[in-house]
Amino acid sequence: MTAMTTAAAPTTTAAAAADSKAPGFLDGKKAGSIQNVVVRLEGLAIMAIALTAYFMALGGSGGFLAATFLLPDIAIAAWLINPRIGALAYNSAHTYLAGGLLGAVGFALGSTVMLQLGVIWAAHVGFDRALGYGLKYGDATFFDTHLGRI
To answer: What are the C-alpha distances in Å from 109 to residues 5, 102, 104, 141?
Structure first.
């Protein structure tokens, strides 16, 4: 009876950690991991949908898109203050939430320009994700992201 109890004991933390290194375990920080590929494909899809909405549904122009597409990258300048503030600013400007909120406010107010900026913002974030640029860590370099090292 003692042998059965020992055999059925829960795995230890060390054993669980060892299992995570087993062949086939998916590590999201590796550039070729399935999670990384899925996030990149999702980013590409969001970018395509946002740009289609911008041109087809909102009647956007290529000039306005070109002038505003990289605006979220202004947040990179906060990295000059320190990495923690830089990561906070970059991550705030590089989530779908920011563009979604801007687009929702534009929709509520009937502002086509705000709505266009919201979908451009979403397209920018999707573009970054498709290229492998992820959210930043405040205690790391700019090149260390939730998608792995750039």
So the answer is: 65, 11, 9, 39
The tally of domains found in the chain comes to: 1
**Can you name the residues that pair with 14 across neighbouring β-strands?**
none
Dist. CA 42–CA 16, nearest whole Å: 30
Query: Letter for the amino acid at 35?
Result: Q
> Domain limits at 66?
33-141
Q: Which of 8-12, 67-71, 83-87 has the lowest mean pLDDT?
A: 8-12
- Residue 1 belongs to what H/E stretch? none
Return phi, psi of residue 139, to 5°. -110, 25
CA gap 34, 24 in Å, rounded: 11
On the CB side of 78, how many CA atoms lie within 13 Å of its CA?
A: 17
22: in domain: no
pTM of the model: 0.77
